[in-house]
Predict the structure.
Amino acid sequence: MTTTPAAAANTVVPANTVMIEAQGVQKWYPNGFHALRGCDLRVNRGEVVVIMGPSGSGKSTFIRTFNALEDFQKGRIVVDGIALSNDLRNIDAIRREVGMVFQQFNLFPHLTVLDNLTLAPVLVRKRAKAEVERQAMALLQRVGIAEQASKFPGQLSGGQQQRVAIARALCMEPRILLFDEPTSALDPEMVREVLDVMRNLAEDDITMVVVTHEVKFAEQVAHRVVLMAEGEVVEEAPPQVFFNTPSHERTRRFLDQIL
Amino acid sequence: MNSLLRRLRHELFATPGDAVLSVALLALLTLAMGGLLRWALVQANWAVIQANSTLFAVGRYPAEQQWRLWLLTSLLVGAAGLSWGLLRAHPRADRQGLLWPRNDRVAVGLLAGLAVWLPWALGLTGGIQARWWGLAALLIGLRWLAGRQGASWPPRLLKLVPLVWPLLYLTGMVLIGGGLGVAKVSPSEWGGLLLTLLSASFAILLCFPLGVLLALGRRSELPLLRWASVIYIEFIRGAPLITLLFLGQNIFGFLLPNGLAPERVWRAAWVLTFFAAAYLAEAVRSGLAAVPTGQVEAARSLGLSQARALQHVVLPQALRVALPAMVGQFISLLQDTTLLSLIGLLELLGVARTVMANPEFLGKNAEVYLTLAVLFWCCCAALGLGSRALERRLDPRTVPSR
Ligand SMILES: Nc1ncnc2c1ncn2[C@@H]1O[C@H](COP(=O)(O)OP(=O)(O)O)[C@@H](O)[C@H]1O
Ligand SMILES: [Mg+2]
């Protein structure tokens, strides 16, 4: 796997097609907790947007609304031209185009690595199994674990599992990939192998929204960095500006804590 | 041998206290076993079993129709040998399996020994003894053949093998009860082990899908469905089976127009099914609860529909977790069939009671009950062994990592 020289990825100017458009999104959890208090975000095709912010600020909640894992009560979200509504057909169409990588990997433990990858393309996209398996092997090769294809997830290390999870999401050929703290559950020595895979992905056309605390990754790969706090988007800026000359006091305080 | 001795010493006589306890327990065990053996070999009079072996096996099933049961038995034995061999010829892809593991060699030895000794001990006629030998030979022969040739069978053919079992079950129903050109044998003439196994297997097969549906209903987001499932489950679990059995004998008559109500045996089998489904639902529910919500989220975010996520992601994991509890339910269901004797059906216990009431065999209760206990023990042991093998085959965690 080749790592791009620093900053090579984020110099590419993305085509100006809006992939995700969120306007004034508000969410209350069933227990009445006001988790999102009017969030705006626009992500263009091919862009990599990193979301940072203290724990409990609503980062997970926000990106989970993009593929309808969470509903919301006010505002508007348009994903790849499809407005998110309660129409189930809409939701299925969006989920096919939006892949997600979770903090806890969430691989299917009863299926082999290869079957984890092929399950959805065969069932949802109705593609031929043999063809999907070829593609899956190529993806596993790309994330560097082709030789583990016939093992079960429980037999792999955390880093390997997360790479399988990324390959699984890619196998559906999504246009957008959401990452929710993909390296937070990993031992430190495994963080890098996962970030390398993500860097490699960022060079492609795929649109990525990444919740992470990895500052170096954000500096090198992100086109824009977003700070969330208390259910609101506080600051949104290119990484150089975000990390060096942020315009909000809240951002400075957050950066003081993590840097 | 030496290591065995060392292990025995280590486990039984590690400390003086352990040694005393071990010796005392061993003495007690020897005494009990000795007494039982002396009774079984010297005092007991097994004529009561020998004279009634057919009654215990099939009840009052007409003698001139019993060829159908022999045919069914040989079909079952053949299918078992075939499946067994094929399973060994195709170990799971991620694991190397022996064609003849030690357990299989022991099982074959036991089965062969049993097939030779039991018909002789029961004093069966020469012809019937030969049939049992033939059945054992069929089982072992097919096990051997399928084990040897199975690896080279075309995958298409292998996919058809699991279908043999449901087909065989339906064939068995026709062979036992008649229909489709086969002479009818009324359920009131079925009995003994035949009736026990039939009602138990019927209830086990049908309570499974019913229990899964009830468990899903109980976790449903639709309030009506959820409450209906809860009420059903709690009502059934709150009532003793015997009252439900009596109720079932009457209620089908009220609910269904005359003539449409099922035969008494079937009424009982349906009650068993509905009863077991409620308990099974609770076992499945605990399995469902053990599947993390992240699994559903991952499946949904890959675009799987709710139903597909359930079928391919949630249920396989939930059922594997619930398997031991479910098999426990199946085993108690098998034992619960003895209650059918209280509503006048001649399953194993019913037959036993008529035999013991026969003046000719007065006072032979111990022999009869011991036979019954051993028969039930064998059936339950088979269920337990099968479930443990299935558990091991399904569980990725038991795969040795390479
Ligand atoms: N299911 C839920 N019900 C009620 N409150 C929730 C639920 N999930 C999350 N929250 C609350 O919403 C807030 C935002 O959560 P989350 O989006 O997970 O934060 P982050 O990912 O930024 O750490 C937190 O205060 C959390 O306690
Ligand atoms: Mg989070």
